[in-house]
Amino acid sequence: LPNKNIAQLGSKPLLQWAVEAAKDSGVISDVYVSTDSEEYAGIAIRAGAKTINRPDYLATDEATSEDTVYHALSHVTGYDVGVLLQPSSPLTKAETVRKAVEAVALNGYDTALSVVKANHRPWWAFRILEGGRLEPFITLPNGSPYAGETPPDLYYPTGGVYAFKVDFFMESRRLYGGSMFGVQVGQLEGIDIDTELDLNFARYALMMLESGIRN
Prior knowledge:
Blueprint lengths: L7 E2 L2 E2 H11 L7 E4 L2 H10 L2 E4 L11 H9 L7 E5 L8 H12 L5 E7 L8 E3 L5 E3 L18 E11 H7 L7 E6 L10 H15 L5
Parallel strand pairs: 3-4, 6-10
Antiparallel strand pairs: 1-2, 5-9, 6-9, 7-8
Helix pairs in contact: 1-2
C-alpha cells in the first residue's frame, strides 16, 4: 500500500491518528516522528509532534522497527520509558497507550504491548503438502487436536503499541521481551493495516465505532 502511513482514515491521515493517541494518553511527555519525508514531517508537526530525520539506511524494506527506534533514542536522551506507536494501527486508543506505559513505569515490567485474542488456534491448523494432502501443523501424542480438551486462549501483538524501559531496549534492541505485560484490546482496535483491503476494513470499523458499536 503506497504511502500507507499517510493514507486517509476518516478526516485525517493514519500518522495523525498515532500522534493524537500519544498526546491524548496523558502519559507521554514528547512525541517524535521518525521520517525521511518532508510531507510526513509536515503532517507530524501540524499534529503536534517533533520530528527526527531518518537516514537513508533506515528508509529501506530491510530496516526494522527496532533499528528505527534505536536511531531515535540515540538522538534524544533523558527518558526512562519509551513507546512505539505505529500508524498502521490507527484505531489504537489513548487508554491502551496509558495502560502500556503504566505497566512499565509503575509496575516494573520491562516491556508492554497491545495484544488481541486469536480467532484461530494452531492446534487446529494444517499444512498443505504436495498433491494437496493435509498434515496437522502440530501433532499431539494421541494424534488429535489438543487431546479433545478446550485449548487455551491465545493472544498476538497488534503492532499498535510497544512500551519499554529505555535501558532494556538500548541493551537488548528488542521491543518486547524480559518481563512482559499484555494490554488486551478488541478486534476493531487491533486492526493492522498492510493492504488496501485492510484500509477499507478500517474505514468500515471506524464507522461502526462512530455509530456506537462497542469494540
